[in-house]
Protein backbone atom coordinates (compact mmCIF):
# COMPACT_ATOMS: atom_id res chain seq x y z
CA UNK A 1 0.00 0.00 0.00
CA UNK A 2 1.30 3.45 -0.87
CA UNK A 3 2.38 5.61 2.05
CA UNK A 4 -0.14 8.53 2.11
CA UNK A 5 2.36 10.86 3.83
CA UNK A 6 5.04 10.10 1.24
CA UNK A 7 2.49 10.51 -1.55
CA UNK A 8 1.48 13.92 -0.21
CA UNK A 9 5.13 15.00 0.01
CA UNK A 10 5.80 13.82 -3.55
CA UNK A 11 2.75 15.71 -4.77
CA UNK A 12 3.96 18.89 -3.09
CA UNK A 13 7.43 18.42 -4.57
CA UNK A 14 5.97 17.93 -8.05
CA UNK A 15 4.07 21.20 -7.76
CA UNK A 16 7.14 22.99 -6.43
CA UNK A 17 9.41 22.07 -9.37
CA UNK A 18 6.62 22.65 -11.89
CA UNK A 19 6.13 26.20 -10.62
CA UNK A 20 9.91 26.79 -10.50
CA UNK A 21 10.29 25.77 -14.16
CA UNK A 22 8.19 28.74 -15.28
CA UNK A 23 11.08 31.13 -14.63
CA UNK A 24 12.85 29.68 -17.67
CA UNK A 25 9.97 30.00 -20.11
CA UNK A 26 10.47 33.17 -22.10
CA UNK A 27 7.95 35.18 -24.08
CA UNK A 28 7.61 33.97 -27.67
CA UNK A 29 9.02 30.49 -27.07
CA UNK A 30 7.96 27.31 -28.81
CA UNK A 31 7.67 24.82 -25.95
CA UNK A 32 7.47 21.05 -25.76
CA UNK A 33 5.01 19.85 -23.11
CA UNK A 34 5.84 16.58 -21.38
CA UNK A 35 3.57 13.88 -20.02
CA UNK A 36 2.89 12.56 -16.54
CA UNK A 37 1.82 14.03 -13.23
CA UNK A 38 4.68 16.52 -12.79
CA UNK A 39 4.40 17.74 -16.39
CA UNK A 40 0.66 18.14 -15.86
CA UNK A 41 1.33 20.60 -13.03
CA UNK A 42 3.71 22.52 -15.31
CA UNK A 43 1.03 22.69 -18.02
CA UNK A 44 -1.43 24.04 -15.44
CA UNK A 45 0.97 26.75 -14.23
CA UNK A 46 2.01 27.67 -17.76
CA UNK A 47 -1.65 27.99 -18.72
CA UNK A 48 -2.22 30.38 -15.81
CA UNK A 49 0.63 32.59 -17.03
CA UNK A 50 -0.66 32.52 -20.62
CA UNK A 51 -4.21 33.41 -19.62
CA UNK A 52 -2.94 36.24 -17.42
CA UNK A 53 -1.06 37.69 -20.39
CA UNK A 54 2.34 37.18 -18.74
CA UNK A 55 3.61 34.83 -21.46
CA UNK A 56 2.94 34.25 -25.13
CA UNK A 57 3.99 30.78 -26.22
CA UNK A 58 2.95 28.03 -28.58
CA UNK A 59 3.43 24.40 -27.77
CA UNK A 60 3.64 20.81 -28.96
CA UNK A 61 2.67 18.01 -26.58
CA UNK A 62 4.21 14.59 -26.06
CA UNK A 63 0.85 12.85 -25.70
CA UNK A 64 -2.83 13.21 -26.47
CA UNK A 65 -3.50 13.56 -22.74
CA UNK A 66 -1.09 16.50 -22.50
CA UNK A 67 -2.60 18.02 -25.65
CA UNK A 68 -6.00 17.99 -23.99
CA UNK A 69 -4.59 19.48 -20.78
CA UNK A 70 -2.92 22.25 -22.79
CA UNK A 71 -6.16 23.10 -24.61
CA UNK A 72 -8.05 23.22 -21.31
CA UNK A 73 -5.31 25.47 -19.88
CA UNK A 74 -5.54 27.85 -22.83
CA UNK A 75 -2.07 27.14 -24.23
CA UNK A 76 -1.95 27.54 -28.05
CA UNK A 77 -0.82 24.38 -29.84
CA UNK A 78 0.83 24.18 -33.26
CA UNK A 79 1.64 21.44 -35.75
CA UNK A 80 5.39 20.83 -36.11
CA UNK A 81 6.76 21.73 -39.53
CA UNK A 82 9.94 20.85 -41.39
CA UNK A 83 12.74 22.70 -39.63
CA UNK A 84 10.86 23.09 -36.34
CA UNK A 85 13.30 23.38 -33.45
CA UNK A 86 11.66 23.81 -30.06
CA UNK A 87 13.21 26.34 -27.71
CA UNK A 88 12.53 24.31 -24.59
CA UNK A 89 10.90 21.01 -23.67
CA UNK A 90 9.80 20.49 -20.07
CA UNK A 91 9.12 16.92 -19.05
CA UNK A 92 9.26 14.51 -16.12
CA UNK A 93 11.17 11.28 -15.54
CA UNK A 94 10.61 7.95 -13.85
CA UNK A 95 14.28 7.74 -12.84
CA UNK A 96 17.37 9.92 -13.22
CA UNK A 97 20.96 9.53 -12.12
CA UNK A 98 23.83 11.96 -11.49
CA UNK A 99 24.68 12.05 -15.23
CA UNK A 100 21.06 12.96 -16.08
CA UNK A 101 20.53 9.63 -17.76
CA UNK A 102 16.81 8.90 -17.56
CA UNK A 103 14.23 6.17 -17.64
CA UNK A 104 10.99 7.50 -19.08
CA UNK A 105 7.81 6.06 -20.47
CA UNK A 106 5.93 4.91 -17.40
CA UNK A 107 2.91 6.69 -18.84
CA UNK A 108 3.43 5.16 -22.28
CA UNK A 109 4.42 8.35 -24.14
CA UNK A 110 8.11 7.50 -24.58
CA UNK A 111 8.21 7.75 -28.39
CA UNK A 112 6.77 11.26 -28.63
CA UNK A 113 8.75 12.28 -25.54
CA UNK A 114 11.98 11.21 -27.23
CA UNK A 115 11.02 12.88 -30.51
CA UNK A 116 10.41 16.23 -28.81
CA UNK A 117 13.52 15.95 -26.63
CA UNK A 118 15.63 15.34 -29.73
CA UNK A 119 13.97 18.27 -31.53
CA UNK A 120 14.61 20.74 -28.68
CA UNK A 121 17.41 23.19 -28.02
CA UNK A 122 17.02 22.65 -24.27
CA UNK A 123 15.43 19.83 -22.29
CA UNK A 124 14.46 20.56 -18.69
CA UNK A 125 13.49 17.59 -16.52
CA UNK A 126 11.28 18.01 -13.46
CA UNK A 127 11.33 15.45 -10.66
CA UNK A 128 10.44 14.88 -7.05
CA UNK A 129 13.11 13.49 -4.73
CA UNK A 130 12.00 9.86 -5.15
CA UNK A 131 13.08 9.83 -8.81
CA UNK A 132 16.82 10.31 -8.16
CA UNK A 133 18.70 6.98 -8.05
CA UNK A 134 22.38 5.98 -7.79
CA UNK A 135 21.93 3.57 -10.71
CA UNK A 136 19.14 3.21 -13.26
CA UNK A 137 17.05 0.06 -13.34
CA UNK A 138 14.80 -0.08 -10.33
CA UNK A 139 11.92 1.29 -12.42
CA UNK A 140 10.85 -1.09 -15.22
CA UNK A 141 12.25 -0.01 -18.59
CA UNK A 142 9.40 0.53 -21.09
CA UNK A 143 9.57 -0.37 -24.78
CA UNK A 144 7.12 0.61 -27.50
CA UNK A 145 6.68 -2.39 -29.80
CA UNK A 146 4.96 -2.95 -33.14
CA UNK A 147 2.18 -5.53 -32.46
CA UNK A 148 3.19 -7.84 -35.33
CA UNK A 149 6.73 -8.13 -33.94
CA UNK A 150 5.76 -8.85 -30.32
CA UNK A 151 6.55 -12.63 -30.16
CA UNK A 152 10.04 -12.17 -31.61
CA UNK A 153 10.74 -9.10 -29.52
CA UNK A 154 9.83 -11.02 -26.36
CA UNK A 155 12.10 -13.90 -27.41
CA UNK A 156 15.04 -11.55 -27.86
CA UNK A 157 14.35 -9.73 -24.59
CA UNK A 158 14.33 -13.00 -22.68
CA UNK A 159 17.81 -13.74 -24.06
CA UNK A 160 18.88 -10.37 -22.66
CA UNK A 161 17.44 -11.42 -19.27
CA UNK A 162 15.04 -8.49 -19.40
CA UNK A 163 12.13 -10.33 -17.72
CA UNK A 164 9.70 -8.65 -20.16
CA UNK A 165 6.02 -8.22 -19.33
CA UNK A 166 3.39 -7.01 -21.77
CA UNK A 167 1.68 -4.03 -20.14
CA UNK A 168 -2.06 -4.32 -19.52
CA UNK A 169 -4.53 -1.53 -20.06
CA UNK A 170 -5.24 0.28 -16.78
CA UNK A 171 -8.98 0.43 -17.44
CA UNK A 172 -9.35 -3.10 -18.79
CA UNK A 173 -6.68 -5.49 -17.53
CA UNK A 174 -7.81 -8.14 -20.03
CA UNK A 175 -6.58 -5.91 -22.87
CA UNK A 176 -3.04 -4.87 -23.71
CA UNK A 177 -2.13 -1.22 -23.20
CA UNK A 178 -1.77 0.79 -26.42
CA UNK A 179 0.24 3.91 -27.09
CA UNK A 180 -1.07 6.98 -28.93
CA UNK A 181 0.43 5.33 -32.03
CA UNK A 182 -1.56 2.10 -31.33
CA UNK A 183 1.60 0.15 -30.54
CA UNK A 184 2.12 -2.15 -27.55
CA UNK A 185 4.10 -1.49 -24.37
CA UNK A 186 6.51 -4.01 -22.90
CA UNK A 187 8.08 -3.38 -19.48
CA UNK A 188 11.55 -4.86 -18.90
CA UNK A 189 12.58 -5.69 -15.35
CA UNK A 190 16.38 -5.60 -15.33
CA UNK A 191 16.65 -4.38 -11.69
CA UNK A 192 20.04 -2.78 -12.44
CA UNK A 193 21.47 -1.22 -15.60
CA UNK A 194 25.26 -1.07 -15.19
CA UNK A 195 25.79 -0.04 -18.83
CA UNK A 196 22.74 1.88 -20.14
CA UNK A 197 24.47 2.90 -23.39
CA UNK A 198 25.25 -0.69 -24.37
CA UNK A 199 21.73 -1.79 -23.50
CA UNK A 200 20.28 1.07 -25.57
CA UNK A 201 22.25 -0.14 -28.61
CA UNK A 202 21.04 -3.70 -28.09
CA UNK A 203 17.41 -2.63 -27.83
CA UNK A 204 17.65 -0.36 -30.89
CA UNK A 205 18.90 -3.34 -32.92
CA UNK A 206 15.74 -5.39 -32.25
CA UNK A 207 13.34 -5.20 -35.24
CA UNK A 208 9.91 -4.11 -34.05
CA UNK A 209 11.11 -2.01 -31.10
CA UNK A 210 9.96 1.49 -32.01
CA UNK A 211 11.40 3.21 -28.94
CA UNK A 212 12.93 2.40 -25.57
CA UNK A 213 12.70 4.39 -22.37
CA UNK A 214 16.41 5.09 -21.95
CA UNK A 215 17.03 8.82 -22.51
CA UNK A 216 20.78 9.24 -22.71
CA UNK A 217 22.47 12.55 -23.42
CA UNK A 218 19.16 14.33 -24.01
CA UNK A 219 18.53 16.17 -20.73
CA UNK A 220 20.46 19.40 -20.25
CA UNK A 221 19.20 20.27 -16.77
CA UNK A 222 16.93 18.82 -14.09
CA UNK A 223 15.05 20.53 -11.29
CA UNK A 224 14.62 18.19 -8.33
CA UNK A 225 12.55 19.05 -5.27
CA UNK A 226 13.68 17.83 -1.88
CA UNK A 227 11.14 18.91 0.67
CA UNK A 228 10.77 22.67 0.25
CA UNK A 229 14.08 23.08 -1.61
CA UNK A 230 14.62 22.94 -5.39
CA UNK A 231 18.01 21.70 -6.58
CA UNK A 232 19.48 22.14 -10.05
CA UNK A 233 21.17 19.06 -11.51
CA UNK A 234 23.65 19.15 -14.39
CA UNK A 235 25.39 16.05 -15.81
CA UNK A 236 28.39 15.14 -13.69
CA UNK A 237 28.04 18.16 -11.37
CA UNK A 238 27.03 18.38 -7.73
CA UNK A 239 23.43 19.60 -7.27
CA UNK A 240 23.11 23.31 -6.49
CA UNK A 241 20.30 25.43 -5.09
CA UNK A 242 18.01 27.04 -7.66
CA UNK A 243 18.66 30.37 -5.90
CA UNK A 244 22.13 30.42 -7.50
CA UNK A 245 20.72 30.61 -11.02
CA UNK A 246 19.18 33.49 -12.94
CA UNK A 247 19.24 31.81 -16.35
CA UNK A 248 18.74 28.17 -17.27
CA UNK A 249 22.18 26.56 -16.87
Kindly list the characteristics that best describe this protein:
249 residues, seven-stranded mixed beta sheet, Rossmann fold
Can you lay out the helices and strands and say which pair or pack?
Elements lengths: L3 H18 L8 E4 L3 H15 L6 E4 L2 H10 L14 E5 L2 E2 L5 E2 L6 H9 L4 E6 L12 E5 L4 H10 L4 E3 L17 E5 L7 H9 L4 E4 L1 E2 L5 E6 L2 E5 L6 E2 L8
Parallel strand pairs: 1-2, 1-3, 3-6, 6-12
Antiparallel strand pairs: 4-5, 5-11, 7-9, 7-10, 8-9, 12-13, 13-14
Structure in words:
The protein is of the alpha/beta class. It folds into two domains: 4-133 and 216-244, Rossmann fold; 141-210, Alpha-Beta Plaits. It is built from six helices and 14 strands. It has helices at residues 4-21, 37-51, 64-73, 110-118, 150-159, 196-204; strands at 30-33, 58-61, 88-92, 95-96, 102-103, 123-128, 141-145, 164-166, 184-188, 209-212, 214-215, 221-226, 229-233, 240-241. The strands form three sheets. It has a seven-stranded mixed sheet, with helices on both faces. A four-stranded antiparallel sheet has the order 8-9-7-10. The longest helix is centred in the first third of the chain and has 18 residues, at 4-21. The chain is globular and about 55 Å long. The N and C termini lie far apart (38 Å).
Parts with pLDDT < 50 across at least 5 consecutive residues: none
Strand order of the largest sheet: 2-1-3-6-12-13-14
The helix content, as a percent range, equals: 25-40%
Terminal CA distance reads 38 Å
Described by strand count, sense and barrel closure, the largest sheet is: 7 strands, mixed
| Overall domain count | 2
Morphology = globular
The total count of strands amounts to: 14
SSE ordering: HEHEHEEEHEEHEEHEEEEE
Number of helices: 6
Radius of gyration: 18 Å
> How would you classify the helix and strand content by structural class?
alpha/beta
CATH topology of the largest domain: Rossmann fold
Strand residue percentage: 15-25%
CATH class of the largest domain: Alpha Beta
Amino acid sequence: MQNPVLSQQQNQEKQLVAAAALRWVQDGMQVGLGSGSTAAYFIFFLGEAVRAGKLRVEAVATSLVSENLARQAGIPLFEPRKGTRLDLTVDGADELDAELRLIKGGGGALLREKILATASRRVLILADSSKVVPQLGRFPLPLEVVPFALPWVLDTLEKLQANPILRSDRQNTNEAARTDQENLLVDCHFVQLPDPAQLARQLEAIPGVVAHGLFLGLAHTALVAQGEQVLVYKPGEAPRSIAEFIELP
